[in-house]
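Thread: Newbie trying to understand structure tokens

Hi all, I'm a second-year student working on a class project, and my supervisor (Dr. K.) asked me to get a predicted structure for one chain before our next meeting. I've only ever worked with sequences, so writing a 3D structure as a token string is new to me. If someone could post the tokens and maybe explain what I'm looking at, I'd be very grateful. Here's the chain:
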Amino acid sequence: MKRFVLVAMLFSFCILLLGGCRAPAANQAANVGEEIKKLENKILELEEELHSKELDIKYLKEERDYYRKFIDSVLEKMTEAELREIVKKEWWYTLSIRYSEEDKNYVSINFPENGRVVLDKSNFEVVLSEHNAPFPIVDDAIKYKKIYDQVRLRNKTDHIKIMNYDNYEIAAG
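---
Reply by user tm_fold:
Sure, no problem. This is what the structure looks like when written as tokens:
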């Protein structure tokens, strides 16, 4: 009988032990299920947001195309001089001189209106920079090639004259 009681207690202990271990596992499964539902809801929200953004992009592309056609129709009615003025505002140049001080930091000098700079340095760089508008109005370079050629500098080094300085080299930027 003692043996039966001992086996029954051991069996009961094992059942309690295994039952206690399974309860958190069931709890974990419920937590995982809840987490999956949260993530599925988040995916649905993000898919809705993506669809909304895709519609916004489609609308903006249609709007851009409409304005591009309108701009083209206005450009066709403009004179060559008016078009040249627009292109001049879309392409511009800056000229500066860079030289190094003793601490190796570069100093930049922008040219004044008279175009003359006196510099008492023997080692310097003349920097000619070309800039253009990120979204040009006159953007058909083939159709308006003649106007672009009148405004843009082709061989930039032909436009820079360095007086009283013989030892210089021209390098592309």
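A couple of things are worth pointing out once you decode it. The longest helix spans residues 2-76. The two ends are 101 Å apart (CA to CA). Feel free to ask follow-ups in this thread.
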